Amino acid sequence: MIEAYQGAFMEEDGTTEDSTAGLRSNAAGPTFGNSRSNSTTKHGLTCNIICENEEEEEGDEQLPPRRTDLPFHSSHDEYVVKCSRRLLYVFYGCGTIFAAIILWQIISQHKQRHVIAWSVGAIFVGIAVPFSLHDIHMHTMHYVNPKLQKYYIRILWMVPIYAIESWLALRFRGQKLFLETAREAYEAYVIYNFYMLLLHYLGGGQGVRDILKAKSDAGDKTVRLLFPFCCFRWKRSGQFINRCTVGVIQYVIIRFFLAFITCLVEYMLDHGLGQREALEQTVFAILIIINVSQVWAVYCLVAFYHEFHYELRAINPFWKFVVVKMVVFLSFWQGLLFSGMAREGMLRPYMDYSKQDIASGIQNLLICIEMAAISVAHKYVFSYKDMEIIVEPNKMKPHPSWAAWIDILPWDVISDFREQVFNGFGLRRKMQKKNRSPKSGVGAVTSEVSTLTVMNTHVVENRSTLAAVV
Does some domain include residue 160? Predict the structure, then answer.
């Protein structure tokens, strides 16, 4: 019965034998014990291929065993993968012994509080970084979908960068201003990559527009926004995706540039340059701008997820969104909270550490601890095993590991960014309209040609009259 349905699906949709093979493989059910849906993904769109009656009829049939001869399972670097796992266990064993020695020295020698913070932060960084590097390594070993996996890897790099940067800022407070600025810039980069991951899974900008056009042709031509803008509607004819794109990209731009402006202002405050009251007001204004921009970016991401949650369900976007939001946005609110506590006098100076130094130190220590938990969440949320569900088995083609390290470099960011900005702000349409010849211009040219014709006629008549007189 499944084969009959697949034949009808081929006649209706014009799929090839390769697509049929992918459908038959997916109809057998997903592997790794994952029961998300008995569905197949074609160009990022998930379509059901078994109705409820067919499931009841096929329920007694035994599913075929999981195939292990596919490129996803028979990795060309399987030996390296096994060695990576063993080295990870050895590293954590040594790390546990190292952590016990550090704690014993802290307790026995009665170290000062800032030394305790350094040691505790180092322990959690030692837990988070290897865990995330192992996930990145597994993606490179099973690199079968470069278009999506490069975004996975870029997001996974967030944990090592955050953890190491926060510990360095905790340990070397003289350079914390520049280190924290680099972390804030990477926050914007993570948001961009997460949005592009969802967008490219759906087939890119054109694929999303095709989905919206299909929904528009099927019924409602507008999208009702979520609270508190539920009274407004965005058109499905490109307006929705363009405004969501602008909503995300504006935060990336604002966060990136204001991070460097904040760095400059904080540097002036620390060295007594300029009027202190004016600089503090500038910092407060920057925080308000970042907060408003951040809230709008989150709203656009939620609206995007709400509109395409059915098409995105194969990659479990909800938990991906939660994890990214926890890392990127929780760090901002933590920093804002501790800075406010320092200004209100709730934090006291310690040795040669000022109240702001204490606030930054607590913030960086918490990030080191949080990264250990986030690294565990990333192992399940951004797992390389997602590719087995996303990519059809007959289309899995393993790529060399070095290709992954080249693809994660941000060469494509500039071109993607330019394309999304042009589409989002409507600049492409404006340029096309500008290049077109307006009617007034054509009329002016026509009138000029007519004038020249009349003038030539008068010249000919004058010549004829002159010849007759002569």
Answer: yes
Give the ranges where 111-175 is alpha helix by DSSP (H).
Answer: 113-141, 146-156, 158-171
Is the domain of 442 the same as that of 396? Answer: no
Residues 6+ apart with CB under 8 A from 109: none
Residue 65 lies in a domain: no
Beta-bridged to residue 39, according to DSSP, are 48
Residue 184 to residue 259: CA distance in whole angstroms: 6
Q: Which domain holds residue 449?
A: 438-465
13 alpha carbon, distance to own chain's centre: 31
Most confident stretch, 102-106, 222-226, 341-345, 375-379? 375-379
Contact 391, 143 (CB under 8 A): no
| Residues pairing with 45 in the sheet | 42
117: tokens are 């913070």
Residues 91, 232 within the same domain: yes
Give this prediction's pTM: 0.69
The more confidently predicted of residues 387 and 63 is 387
Confidence tier at 330 by pLDDT (50, 70, 90): confident
In a domain, 63, yes or no: no
Query: Is residue 333 located within the same domain as residue 457?
Result: no
Q: Based on the domain organization, do 374 and 442 belong to the same domain? A: no
Place of tokens 């058109």: 235
Number of domains forming the structure of the chain: 3
Shared domain check, 443 and 411: no
Report the distance separating Cα 373 and Cα 439, nearest Å. Answer: 64
Cβ–Cβ under 8 Å, residues 10 and 24: no
Contacts of 421 (CB under 8 A, 6+ apart): 249, 427
Q: What is the pLDDT of residue 40?
A: 39
